Amino acid sequence: MNDKLLEVKEVYKTFDGVVHALKCVSIEACENEIVGVVGENGAGKSTLMKILVGVYSPDKGEMYHKGKMIPFPRTPKEAAKRGISIVYQENGVIPWLKVYQFLFLGHEDKYIKYMKLQTVRMKEKACEILEELHVACEVEAFMHELPLSTQKMVEIARAILGVRLESEDGDTTPIIILDEPTAPLTDDECKELFRDLLKMKKNASFIFISHIIPEVMEFTDRVHVLRDGNLVAKYDFSKEKMTEEDLFRAIVGRKSSEYISRSEDRGAADEEVVLAAKNLTKSGHFYDVSFDLHKGTCIGFFGPTGSGKSKIIRTIAGLMNYDEGELKARDQELKGDELPHVRLTRGIGYFSGETGKELFLNWSIAKNISIINMEKILGKLIPVIHFNAERKMAENIVQKLEIKAPSVGTDCYSLSGGNKQKVSVGKWLERNPDILLLDDPTIGIDVGAREDIYEVLLEMKKKGISMILVSDEPKEYSILCDKIMFVMDGRIQKVLGPEEFRKVMST
Amino acid sequence: MNHSRRNKPTLSVIKQTLKMHPVIIVFLALLLIFGSIYPGSFFSPINFKAILRQFVTLTLFALGPSFVVLTGRLDLSYVGVWMLGGVLVWLCKPVLGMFSIIMIPVTGIATGLFIGVIQTKAKIPSFILTLSLVVTYTGLSALIAGGYPRAVDGYEFITAPLIPLIPSTFIWSIPIIIAAVFLMKCTRICVYLNAIGSNEEGARLAGINVDKYKILAFMLSGVFTGIGGIILFQHLGGSAQVELKLNTIVWPLVAIVLGGTPLTGGSGGPQRTILGAITFTVFYRGLYLSALHPTMITLLVGIVLIVSIIISARGLKGVTVT
Amino acid sequence: MMRKKLMTKPGLSLEWLGSNMTTVGPIIFVIAVVAIFQVINPSFLKYRGIITLVYSMSYFLIAACGLTFVIMTGSFDFSVPNMLKLSALICVLYIEKIGLLVIPLALLVCLGFGFINGLLLAKFKVPSFLATLGVSIVVDGIAWYLSKGHLRIMQDETFRSLATTFIAGFPSILYWGMGVWILSTFLALCTVFGRRTYAVGGNLEGAGLSDINIAWHRIKVFMLSGFLSGLAGVLYMSQMGGGSVKIAADMAIPLFASVVAGGTALTGGVGGPHRTLMGVIIITWIQAGMSMLAIGNDVQMLTFGLIAIGMSIATIDRKRIKIVK
């Protein structure tokens, strides 16, 4: 157990010389074990992995393989020669290839004779390796016919096979990096995947990246916790006893002083229910979600990524269908197959912090603000856009939100991230929907802009707009929410008030 | 153990094949229908020969582009290659003599390379790029040839009858078809093209040089169209054509789609195109024998194109189409 | 901002020219085209020459406006020339039976085929160029079937006066063309419909999140394109006074070239009918100029093919798209 197969020490990586993606991170993987690397979005996990497989090169750091110092790989192929391969989170599967074709994709060199692929030998080899790794599937089947968990297993088998075919000495133990392998899988499929993974442990070492805490607790031997580019903790589960909450706190942990909530911002106890969900279920994502959203209040769905919280909010927005249950806005029933624009006519707006998702980057600020406020700037007699009204509306918003831009005619892509976000919020401020769904509203923007956006959102709440929040930033919940629902594995575990939430979260 | 997996009972093999190529059922049904409506004329030697002739035309035009369709793109340049190549043959005949026929494959390869590079590097939608190129080529051919078709002598041996009832161009096209199917079935090129059509991002993640293989697909298309063009040159009259007809562009397209290669790419290929070509030919000949007005036939071809595209596009959820 | 602009003297600096190339480029191009033809053929800009130019561009402009809307949403409509043809033929074939009612009939038929185009794209997920290619063949078949391939002459004088009445020295088709152009520019820039068309082409996901029924909007855009090609067909027949199924055969690529030459990129979301005017002037005036110089159809096709390829490369925004098919 103690012979370290792969070790990286004190890796530094900056982007554009400013953003510190990784600061002095060291991790190691031993033979035949599953090592977890956990952290929030943006903690630096994927940067680290990309350094390991040769997509990025680090600014500083050392890499050891079986105790020998080696240079960092420069291309994925070089990494494979050293025994390191990766299974990407998404887009890795090629649905219309047969299993054996997929297994050898990109590594066919040794199976070509006179230009002809030796399919018989390939199939035999494929059967062999699938049997060795306990993957149950036909080599002649198409990838898209397999269940998702088997697809993942075949991807892992492909990574192992790739290492074997590329590595210089035949008996290198492959180190396979799994980038959130369970993201697209259902519960049962996950269990299947892990059962098979544990069997594979004797063939390879795994570095397992995930946000999903129970998985990490159950299946990894050791875990590295990354936060903001730093390695903040290392746990060995065989030696230390930990609860899921401990680990969660290590991942998101903040000082308690950061959880300031201002009591004057609490929503008024209005009895009017604007949105009610009853036993809302989408199998594979979330189950039996029930809540009442009162006018002028904010509910937060809180939990680790992959817990189903963002699926819930996407379902309410009309981006996903639900299987069972009831969703009602005031008295209207919201059918599962309604598209977002229909939801908008019922007063439900969706605001995502992802840049470029809802902004039209080649449009001016004014146009971006007016696109959902058309009726306000149309003429009374003939429905024509009044450009003056449009500009005034936009100028109003720009002034109110202190958006830094030369004029309202400036194109959005020349704005900074924070200002882009403010434009997005601004259009909702003007629109005044009944309910505003906030999907990570401040992702990727600086602290100052965040505060400004909170101000606006709180003001909107005071005006009587109800909100639902989903975020990766615990602080946001204590600032914005009146009620926080703790989601784990797609189910609501408990409901907390902001004060309780603060107590739970502060270590 | 491996062998036991492959020794399936014959019936299930047939079932599997039919499931993979539903067009076979259509083909048999068409044979049955037309055979029973016009028992005399449909199975006559003349009709048989006509079917083979048209099959050759369609197949040789459609083989090349099916490599490109495999990657989810379209290549309509075949008509252009055939026309410009033919005119260049006429132009070079006094200089190169019999070897001037080589101009058609050369045009094909050059065109393939050009389209491939422009499509991957300048990111122009392939449909509009190749269509514009066809029009450019038509203009160029007409310009060189002086505006009317030019007959070229000396290649009659291509169509000289070898076996009674079977057009010799059919025999000549067999090696080309075999080469295409070999490429498709037995080399890695087509695994890669399949992968690109099925999930381009995934193929890139798997370490494939996607741009290189996309260009290669267009070049393969050019090569096959070029070599096929040699036969087609004589097959379609032995003269350099200068007039662009919509049907020449559309029919091979129908053959590809009918064969079951979805236009979004990822599966299918030349071997299906052959099936599509023969089915379409039988369909067309059957209609031709009927009392329908020729214009009705054009109309039906359009409808068949739309319906087969709709059917082949079914089940593709989450794909953004524009 | 204002001060900065004043200091750098717009019109003159190279930077400003570079950033506004899509606007300025076509205008320079037009001036160049006119200058060249004027030098070669001094009668190019005489009254008769100008009338020829007007005749050749007006119906073309109407059809191009329709196509522009489709390209603005990132789709393509291949069926415009054939719809134009069908509409023209309907007019000439049935004018004796139902009189001027043929005009609404022709427009309705084209509107209907536009609807089918949109439906195939939005509901059946058929890529637009193939859907419209298929529909275009069907339309072609119908045109053959109805006309039996014969040349027909328009006898009705009222119908012909639609396009050929001279008002203030110009034939009325010019006013039709400019009217449609102004209306579509207005539609694109000043109405909700136009704003949404840009939105669908610019950011499909974002459009879905902001008040827009994408499927229905796409159908509407194709219907508009169908309607305008129908109108172009009616006016074409009124201008020419006759025709067979051979009309508009080579129009697809010049039409497309004129839209992209104006500055509407194939990726959608930019450009607009206001730009298309310049593109149409470039293409149709080159066409007319070449015809005046007795340069054949072949060189014209060659030129338009090259313009189409060149302008698509020039206008497309390669940063925004990852995978193009």
Write up what this structure looks like:
- Helices cover 33% and strands 25% of the residues of chain A.
- Chain A has helices spanning 45-52, 76-81, 99-104, 119-132, 148-166, 187-200, 213-219, 244-252, 309-317, 340-345, 365-370, 374-377, 387-401, 417-431, 447-462, 474-480, 498-505, and strands spanning 4-15, 19-30, 34-38, 60-65, 68-70, 84-87, 112-113, 116-117, 175-179, 205-210, 222-227, 230-236, 273-282, 286-294, 298-302, 324-329, 332-333, 348-352, 435-439, 466-470, 483-488, 491-496.
- Chain A has a six-stranded mixed β-sheet, with helices on both faces. A six-stranded mixed β-sheet of chain A has the order 18-19-20-15-21-22, with helices on both faces.
- In chain A, a hairpin with a 3-residue loop joins β1 (4-15) and β2 (19-30).
- In chain A, α13 crosses α14 (417-431).
- The longest helix of chain A has 19 residues, at 148-166.
- Chain A starts with a strand and ends with a helix.
- Residues 255-259 of chain A have low confidence and may be disordered.
- Chain B has one domain (24-312): ABC transporter involved in vitamin B12 uptake, BtuC.
- In chain B, 73% of the residues lie in helices and 1% in strands.
- Chain B contains 15 helices and two strands.
- In chain B, α5 (45-70) runs parallel beside α9 (168-186) and α5 (45-70) packs across α10.
- Chain C is an all-alpha fold and 325 residues long.
- Chain C has a domain at 58-248.
- Chain C has helices spanning 2-8, 14-19, 21-40, 47-72, 80-98, 102-122, 128-147, 157-164, 172-190, 192-202, 204-208, 214-240, 252-262, 273-292, 297-315; strands at residues 152-153, 166-167, 170-171, 242-243.
- In chain C, a hairpin with a 2-residue loop joins β2 and β3.
- In chain C, α6 (102-122) packs antiparallel against α7 and α9 (172-190) packs across α10 (192-202).
- Chain C is globular, with a radius of gyration of 20 Å.
- The N and C termini of chain C lie far apart (40 Å).
